[in-house]
Amino acid sequence: MTTRINELSKHVGETVTLQGWLYAHTGKGKLVFLQVRDGSGIAQCVVFKGTVDELTFETAQRLTQESSLIVSGVVKADQRAPGVPGGYEISVITLQVIQKAEDYPIAPKEHGVEFLIDNRHLWIRSSRQWAILRVRATVMRAIRAWLDQHGYIEMSTPVLTPSAAEGTTNLFEVGYFDDKAYLAQTGQLYNEANIFAFSNVYCFGPTFRAEKSKTRRHLTEFWMVEPEVAFCDLDQLLEIEEQFVSYIVQTVIKENQAELKVLGRDLDKLTHILPPFPRITYDDAVAKLKQLQAETQDPEHKQLLEITWGMDFGAPHETALTQLYDKPVFVTGFPSAIKAFYMEPYPGRAEVCKSADLLAPEGCGEIIGGSERISDPDLLLKRIHEQELPEAAYKWYIELRKYGSVPHSGFGMGVERTVAWICGIEHVREASPFPRMLNRLYP
Description:
With 443 residues, this protein is of the alpha+beta class. It has 13 helices and 19 strands. It has helices spanning 54-62, 113-118, 120-123, 127-149, 188-198, 234-255, 257-262, 282-295, 299-304, 315-322, 377-386, 395-399, 415-423; strands spanning 15-28, 31-37, 42-48, 68-77, 83-84, 88-99, 153-154, 160-161, 173-176, 179-183, 200-208, 221-230, 279-281, 329-332, 345-346, 349-353, 355-360, 365-372, 408-414. The strands form four sheets. Strands 7-11-12-19-18-17-14-13 form an eight-stranded mixed beta sheet, sandwiched between helices. A five-stranded mixed beta barrel has the order 1-2-3-6-4. A three-stranded antiparallel beta sheet has the order 8-10-9, with no helix packed on it. Helix 4 (127-149) packs across helix 6 (234-255). The mean pLDDT is 96.
């Protein structure tokens, strides 16, 4: 039976067998130090010439990076032992080489980003990428755990749709027999149908945006979780969001200490991510941005912060706002004209809708967008006409408001941006196993 590296602490003094790959190795006289990884961590395996036969020692000396191995030996506790999580090493008894790898193209030196992305199928083996993607797995598991524990039902929504949900300019069009369809931007509209059968639901899967953007925050394919809640107004929704996000962050802190250490993440920036989160209105945010613009002495930064009421926020605006807080901050009440057609307007102020973006700290920007949905069929139809959307395509969606309509709300959270924030990484491409970007469809 094989043992996983992250469980070595349970086997001190015992003989164990590891199955994995050679991450790195060094030699020193009668000793060869093998850094072996198995997907759960990295352990130092020490081959001593006086313990193994001559052939095994020579084999260890000649191993190449990423060769596949089966190693058996005795677990020893040593706080000086390197690895992930570290503190334990294997005194090798036997060594079996499954395959001696060819010269590995990713060496322990600086490589250009394009080279690394071209070799993404190999880059994910590096300790940093391994750590990020393990955090991603925890985030995705925590998402489902919180929602399942709070009575939400996971529903599958279509990937192929006949119409847009959030604007027609960023759709991927695909042929659908003799008709045309689009890759889904969101599962929200279908989830609004689901709440009338199940009350609280969520969908979780890939979404697609044909945005010609090259920023560090954008992918053309990304994963999104979208809860939808019946009998819920915007204030209730924000409480749900802050509990949800806090649970995810605290779960990562609890379960991914080793990975966060590999990434050099400052845990002080995460441990206090607990409710409540600060809240400001769009009006307040515009005022703060104008003040920041007036105070800066940098002409370029001053230009980037330029804002007038009615504009949507760009990355510089979001970054500037998040630098004012050490927790995620809600911005509520965006202009209706820059938000989707289905968002409920504020009573007596139709130019503003009951929407909220959650901006993550440290300049990471929006990780959640949500709103209270329009529940009146006539108002919804009016908004569809105002945005010149095809009424026929939304016939079923309007009908939801005719048979037992209730106030309801929902949000979408992007997995990659959330992972990038929690890990403290600069670009969302590292938060996806195989990122899809404007000029990237390989591998």
